[in-house]
Amino acid sequence: MLRAAASAAAAGALVTGCDPHRADDPGAVRPAGRPSASGAGHAPPAPVRAARPPTRVPGLPVQIENGPRNGRAVALTFHGRGDPKMATALLGEAERAGAKVTVLAVGDWLDEQPAMARRILDGGHELGNHTLHHRNICALPAAEAYAEISGCADRLRKLTGTIGSWFRPSQTRRATPLVTQLARKAGYPHVLSYDVDSLDANDPGAAAVQRTVLDSVGPGSVVSLHLGHAGTVAALPPILDGLRRRGLRAVTTTELVT
């Protein structure tokens, strides 16, 4: 059923990915508002779960590729863009397995799908910044690169109360010194990279995504994956099963490094 649902959702999925060759429990913030004069028939607005502020870990490098290798945790990180139904299905699979993930959202996706910020946080997951338009940030002039970082940070602040836990640059695995400096200026002490690339943005199919991840993952790994790809949705349950058989558990990146 999962494969069928993922295939159906794929028909409307946006093209996503960071391949340059292809083009823990934060508090609640109540939205402002007044109850009706009568107070009848109007439930109070539900609290909006606030995103964690940027994670700062003294002693760790500015650019983080992995967590401690002597533990039993890994971080599954998702570049946030694509069909919201597919994203919701993937988050549901993670939650059924007791896993927590980190979603680095693209700002224009949040403009189109603002409810996804709340969905991610309400599931106990972590939310961060993956630039405003998903451009090749390391090739941009400083002012444009900063606008990409700060623009997404503004969306996150408006939707969640903070600029999110992490910044990950778009269309690159590692940030240049300039992009790292601009991220710090925008309020992010660290840049989040990764040590395992699932290659799922190339849509190789669920079996290939599963194999690529499980062949490379180990304690402390930060795995790069993407929302908006049917193969990734289908691959997630066997990936989580494979981690569990090795005694590993999927946690948010902040939990991994702290």
From TrEMBL:
Residues 30-58 have a biased composition (Low complexity). Gene3D superfamilies: Glycoside hydrolase/deacetylase. InterPro entries: Glyco_hydro/deAcase_b/a-brl, NODB_dom, Polysacc_deacetylase_ArnD. Residues 13-66 are annotated as: Disordered. It comes from the Bacteria. Pfam families: Polysacc_deac_1 (PF01522). Residues 72-251 form the NodB homology domain. This is Polysaccharide deacetylase family protein. It comes from Streptomyces nigrescens.
